[in-house]
Specification:
It contains 6 helices and no strands. With about 170 residues, the chain is mainly alpha-helical.
Length: about 170
Amino acid sequence: MSGTRVPGDHLRGEILRFLEDTAVRTNWAHKGLRAALRGLRLDEALWKPERGHSVWEQINHIAYWKRYILHRTQGKRTRARQAWPAPGRTAAELIRSIADVGALHRELRAAVIGLDPETFDPRRGRYPPAQLLLGAAAHESYHIGQIFLTRKLYRSHRRHRGTRSR
């Protein structure tokens, strides 16, 4: 029956919307990654709070897990580790890191679109694709919040440092 929607089609659509909202637009809780990185300068990307990670480390961490989930959705077996790739040093490298996250998002989106609706059956394996994809979006959402917070802390740090030196 052509034109009949398979239950997995609806779930795929919801997952795609959630991934897109988290990376590019605004989800129900906050602005997406694109907004979190808008106007990011090199000094701000490299600054590290007393406890935690720099914005650039957060970007690389998001990219690492996005790549991992992309490979899993493509059927590739890949070993996961708790990855915090080191930041680069130049503005050009920062631009590449941000572009890499954007490219990975587009690749992941295309991979999800290409999945057979049957793939979204919740009984498929220990971590079915729907669970991995929604978990990836939730993970990214958490780090987007961390990026917003780190950028806010950086601005506060600079303001306080500037007033002490006068």
